[in-house]
Amino acid sequence: MHTTLTITSITDLPEKIASTFLKAGLTPEALGLEGVSKIGGFLESQLKTHGGVVGFGMLFLTKLSLFTDHKTDSGLLADVDDTAKSLVTLNLLGLPQSPRRMINEFETADHFCTYKREQNPSLSANCNALDAILHSPNPSEYSEQIYKLTRFLCKTWCAGNPQDKWVCLQYAALGI
């Protein structure tokens, strides 16, 4: 049975869900071309407006038209998760985006931080950063970051019982 998912507004399919559906092989046409085009345009404009990085607060408040003059240093936190998911979505939609600003903003000595001045690293945030780099137009340009992220993820996972502050990994591993 074939089902078509139709998107009617920008809030029907945020960047995190859009990137998941697109990575699973659903086409923009299957998701609803008009809605997916709106999402692509919205994410492109947010990345451009905010200097190549975004965060939940920025996206949420902009969607509600409560905050439209944001600059990344205005107090709202940009984060690697929303930035990475936005980059993946746009690259999968054929709207090429470089991860360079995400790398400049969130790369540390041995991993990527979710936010500036983060105290403990997030396994899921580093997975998202790696995903964004691997879906970029020229991932080979970022082999150092790919190695760093892969090393961090493997080291963290193999240390046993990895914890993540954003995702319940026991359930994520089961696909729940």
Task: List descriptors.
single chain; 176 residues; mainly alpha; Glycosyltransferase; 9 helices; 0% strand; globular
Summarize the structure.
This protein has 176 residues and is mainly alpha-helical.
- Write down the overall mean pLDDT: 80
By CATH's scheme, which homologous superfamily applies? Answer: Terpene synthase, N-terminal domain
Low-confidence stretches: 9-13, 64-75
How much strand? under 5%
**Multimeric organization:** single chain
Note the main sheet.
none
What's the level 1 CATH class? Answer: Mainly Alpha
What's the CATH topology name? Glycosyltransferase
Number of strands: 0
CATH arch. level architecture: Alpha/alpha barrel
| Cα shape | globular
Q: Kindly give the count of domains.
A: 1
Order of helices and strands: HHHHHHHHH
What is the rounded Rg?
A: 16 Å
Helical proportion, percent range: 40-55%
Number of helices: 9
The separation of the N and C termini measures 23 Å
| Category from helices, strands and their pairing | mainly alpha
Topology:
Layout: H1 15-23, H2 28-31, H3 33-49, H4 56-63, H5 80-92, H6 100-106, H7 123-134, H8 143-158, H9 169-173
Kindly describe this structure.
The protein is mainly α and 176 residues long. It has one domain (10-173): Glycosyltransferase (Alpha/alpha barrel). 52% of the residues lie in helices and 0% in strands. The protein has helices at residues 15-23, 28-31, 33-49, 56-63, 80-92, 100-106, 123-134, 143-158, 169-173. The chain starts with 14 loop residues before the first helix and ends with a helix.
